[in-house]
Amino acid sequence: MARQIDRYLEPLLDEERFAFYQAVCDFGDQEIAPRLLGWEREHVLVPDDAIKKMSQLGLFGLTVNESFGGQGGQHLDLILMGLALGYHSQSVAITPGAAASLGTKPLQLFGNPDQKKAHLPDLAAGKRMFVFGLSEPGRGSDAANPEVTATRDGDGWRIRGEKCWSTNARWASHVVVHALTEPAGRPGHRSTCFIVPMDHPDVHYQEMEGKDVWLQSSTGSIAFDNVHVGNETILGEENEGFKVMVTTLNGGRLFIAGLSLASLAFALDKCRTYAQERVQFDDKPIGRFQRIQDVILDLDIALHQGITWLIHTVRQYDQGSMDRESASKVKIECSRRASELLLLAMEICGGVACLDEFGLMRHMRDLFVCRVGEGSNFALKTLSVRPLLPEISSILE
Hints:
- By secondary structure, the protein is α+β, with helices and mostly antiparallel strands.
- It is 52% helix and 15% strand.
- The chain is globular.
- 47% of the residues are buried.
- It holds the Pfam family Acyl-CoA_dh_1.
- Belongs to the acyl-CoA dehydrogenase family.
- GO terms for molecular function: acyl-CoA dehydrogenase activity; flavin adenine dinucleotide binding.
């Protein structure tokens, strides 16, 4: 059965972009889907050979300028990649997705010529990855005030503290560290971002154990034990790390919204197939029942609405006309709606939905990450409502 999501995507895209999306879908069907269950049962991360194949397909350099060996595409191309790979597995899709939107993107936007020349070619080729060091054990939603510190030391800085929930840490060559550099500064001008090599002797990485979501994605804890770096490692401007962080996360939130819709698309196709094949009560398909039809239609409506809204917002992002609240709102609604409807989709399918080989449980687990990743929905609601209540915005802050 053809993917229902394709019916909604094709009219929104030019022929070349839709062909790219279909090519990545084919890659996912042929190279990822047949191996996914084995990876899960063996408890392994995305294997190196699969990462190499994604690199050869150009997925790590989608948005990198051609002069640095990339594909020269826009954020829309990255979203399409996430929709295509996320249909089978969010944790596979987030590997090139986070590498591009959280790792490469801040370097593209804020890196100086020397930094771009040193790193972008290998990043575009998938020979290395950057990981974005943002979340901390004591800082989740309050990411603007990091506990990791960077203090001046002669002609450089000393970085101390720990980052956690760092996607792709297992494969990262460098970490972009968001650190507090001016505690007494005004809000939004207290932190700085640094590019730190992961093989620095005072940088210590450990894969986080016990995680039951995004099973094939690397999620690491990175500790900085008095790490000394020079001024040349600053990404962007000193004490302007908040700007780097916010700009990076806006694009990441759109990618997370896309992953939510990819899971929703999978659930819709799984349910409408099951409802027509599963016979019960007088040997007739369960799809004849109104309650089953209602859920399937709700899945379809949510997918159609979400795809239309997401593509529109991504185009605004690429044009530089998207406001911060738009990225938050589309991420909130897509992740929330997909999570709610996936539970109903599992009810339609009954006990078989609990089996790993059926696929719905994988997406149910992973959708939780979409609700809390790139800023939790609760925190993003607080930020997004401020323009609607300008008279009390100072109280909300």
